Amino acid sequence: MDRRWCAGLLLLAGTAGVAGCGQPSSQTGHPPQPDPVVTYDTPISQVVTDYEEFPGRTEAIYTVEVRARVSGYLKRVYFQDGQEVRKGDGLFMIDPRPFQATLDRTKGAHEQAEAHSQRLNNEYRRAKLLYEQGRSISREEFDRYAFDHAEAEAALSTAKANMDLAALDLDWTKVTADLPEGMVGRLSRRMVDPGNLVKADDTMMTTIVTQDPLYVYFDVHEQAMLKIGHLVQEGKIDPAKIPVDISLSDEQGFPHRGIVNFTDNRVDVNTGTLRFRAELKNPNYLIKPGLFVRVRVTIGDPHPAIMIHEQSLQTDQSQKKVFLLTQMVDKQGKPEFGEIKDKEGKKTPAAVCKAGSVNVVPGVLRGEYREIKEGIKPGDQVVVSGMQKIRVGAKPNTKTKENPEGVPYTVLATKYNPATDLPPQIDGQAASSPASPLSAGLGNKSAGSRADPGGTPAAGSTPTAGPESSRGSRPTPHADTRPPSGGNSGAGQSGRRGK
User: Fold this and answer.
1) What does each C-alpha distance from 484 to 36, 130, 479 come to in angstroms?
2) Beta carbons within 10 angstroms of residue 117's beta carbon
3) Could you give the CA distance from residue 63 to residue 204 in angstroms, rounded to a whole number?
4) CB of 477 within 8 A of CB of 27?
């Protein structure tokens, strides 16, 4: 009886186990994640002129360090700190009394030497007359009169030089502004107060700088220097009148115009740059010597250019690249759309796109736009923000015989909206981009989408990056649809809308 009871229990447990194995197991795969959201814009066309910008410093054309020419005690100061002066304006007075006494003494010595020279001159003339007539005067006596006269003349010259030097020292006790005729200079503060001793050619008393015009010094690297040289050889630039535009640190644009009037005679081997100097008019004295400025040098002719947002440009080691979008289509060839939520929580359509990267050759920067010389064309959809969320290529384990390329990673794309984003500026003017092909079919009812007031992209686009992939199948729940590291962009995002 016990054996039968044990066998029945074993049979019952086996039946229960088989029944349990027949129940469906819980799914362990990752649920599909919402596609990241990116914004895009199309390139704009602008006529631009190539230029280079360099940092520079302003310098006064004339800088004078005022020092005393004679030693003495400072008696008076004739100016206010920061005053404007012209040539010959009085600045300081050194006590002149010792120098006046010296001048008086040298004048007396000069008069004495002059009288002595006159007496010996008269004696020499009489001796010469007697010697020529052959009267009672020997050759020896005549020579003595001649040399005494010469010595008196030399002593007179010495006395006159001493008197002139004393007069010059007395004149130097009046320190004046030494500037070119017609130039206006501005004084610094006085560095010596009255009553202090000043030493000749040593004590700095003040400084004077001219302010109109000014010099602007800047260093040009070799590539720009060679471009300027080619333009000069081609006759497009006058080497004596190379124009430059100058901007202060707090100014937008380059409102000041200068002319290059000097270039150094050799390249600095330590920096690989050539020193340039431009002359800048400064009639209102706004710009001070020693001020930092930005200098723009034109090195080309105006030409049409394709411009994109500067923030769209990415760096991959030494290469520059951008991300381009291609809208996905389903089996019937209809464009695919998803939905996102705006800041107010309203659902808006967004184009389902795949992204690809292309290498580009950047050019000059204009405000917030960068010229692209090679790599893109008008009408391309260039990603502006959200690049860090983009994954390029196909998802793993999605390649089949029917779809050998696999299911690509996708993003939800919305167009740059001037109503919500600040419009980039190009040289102080708002830039506008042409309409994107992605936004042509938002009102297409066959695509099952509604109009987006914010300029959301829609159907009807042509491939712009990589081969076009038909949206033949949706990824399975077990496919790897996780977004790249950093999370999805969107709080508040929902799944894609029905086709």
Assistant:
1) 9, 125, 14
2) 21
3) 13
4) yes
Nearest CA among 337, 334, 335, 312 for reference residue 322: 312
Please report, in tens digits, the pLDDT of each residue of the chain (499 residues total).
Answer: 455 555 555 555 555 444 444 444 444 555 666 778 888 888 888 888 878 889 999 999 999 999 999 999 999 999 999 999 999 899 999 999 999 999 999 999 998 988 988 888 888 888 888 888 877 778 888 888 888 888 888 999 999 999 999 999 999 999 999 888 888 999 999 999 999 999 998 999 999 999 989 999 999 998 888 888 888 888 877 777 888 999 998 888 889 999 999 989 999 999 999 999 999 998 888 899 999 999 998 887 788 888 888 888 888 888 889 988 888 888 888 888 888 877 777 888 888 888 888 899 888 787 788 888 888 888 888 888 887 888 887 787 777 777 777 788 888 888 877 566 544 444 433 344 444 556 554 444 333 333 333 333 333 333 333 333 333 333 333 333 333 333 333 333 333 433 3
Cite the beta strand spans of 16-78 per DSSP E.
Answer: 37-41, 44-60, 63-67, 72-77
Enter the tokens of residue 451.
């109009």
Report the SS3 class of residue 335: strand
* CB of 246 closer than 8 Å to CB of 294: yes
Residue 480 in 3-state DSSP?
A: coil
Q: Record the tokens describing residue 328, joined without a space.
A: 């996905």
DSSP H/E element including 198: strand 197-198
Bridge partners for 8 per DSSP: none
Tell me 287's DSSP state. Answer: S
Alpha carbon distance 289, 286 (integer Å) = 10
d(CA 244, CA 259): 6
Query: Which residue type does 180 have?
Result: P
Q: How many CA atoms lie within 13 A of 225 on its CB side?
A: 16
